[in-house]
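quick q for whoever's on today - can somebody do inverse folding on this one?? i tried earlier but teh output was garbage lol. tokens:
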């Protein structure tokens, strides 16, 4: 397998964690978003979406981080990233989507660039935008975790939701977001970072960092 990704992309980090949790080897293919390498024709030949991450598995090209992780779950089911119980599976998926769909799209690189380059928003206002959506979005996740406390998002083993939570907290820390209002989020984050799958794949440890 080959993973086309960018070290600072939180969506890419999700997939790196999932691959590490499952112990799956892959070739690391860097695509530098700040240098706009995702728009190059050479990458377009691999990725129709021109986004990262992209997983190439033989002749198959799969984009969107959650779709990639679900693919890995179906093709390499052990160790599982989703609970066996349907209700628990739905809860874990919902937690992942609370971050991947409600928080991340509002603060990814394309949106931040548009705010500055097209709408003329200054850096201070851009950062306020970022912090607002991250801080309020994580409050939603906090309420879900507080309602059913456990070591990880979905129980006593890390899974899909943890793969999504940890990169979002990394981004929140990088942009100096307030995090003291989400103690359950931070408790789960710290538990995850005790595991090599999360620690060894963190952005600054990537070859293109």
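ok took a stab at it. sequence:
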């Amino acid at each position: 397998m080959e993973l086309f990704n960018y070290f600072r992309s939180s969506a890419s980090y999700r997939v790196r964690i999932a691959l590490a949790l499952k112990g799956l080897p892959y070739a690391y293919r860097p695509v530098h978003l700040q240098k706009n390498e995702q728009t190059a024709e050479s990458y377009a030949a691999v990725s129709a979406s021109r986004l990262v991450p992209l997983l190439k598995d033989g002749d198959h090209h799969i984009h969107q981080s959650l779709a990639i992780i679900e693919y890995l779950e179906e093709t390499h089911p052990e160790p599982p990233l989703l609970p066996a119980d349907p209700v628990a599976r739905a809860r874990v998926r919902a937690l992942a989507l609370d971050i991947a769909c409600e928080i991340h799209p509002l603060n990814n690189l394309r949106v931040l660039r548009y705010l500055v380059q097209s709408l003329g928003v200054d850096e201070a206002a851009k950062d306020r935008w970022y912090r607002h959506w991250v801080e309020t979005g994580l409050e939603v996740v906090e309420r879900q975790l507080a309602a059913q406390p456990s070591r990880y998002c979905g129980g006593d083993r890390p899974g899909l939701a943890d793969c999504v939570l940890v990169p979002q907290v990394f981004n929140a820390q990088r942009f100096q977001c307030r995090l003291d209002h989400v103690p359950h989020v931070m408790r789960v984050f710290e538990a995850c970072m005790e595991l090599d799958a999360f620690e060894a794949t963190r952005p600054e440890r990537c070859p293109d960092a």
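fwiw The chain has two domains: 2-79, 86-197. also The CA atoms of residues 11 and 139 lie 20 Å apart. so keep that in mind when u check it
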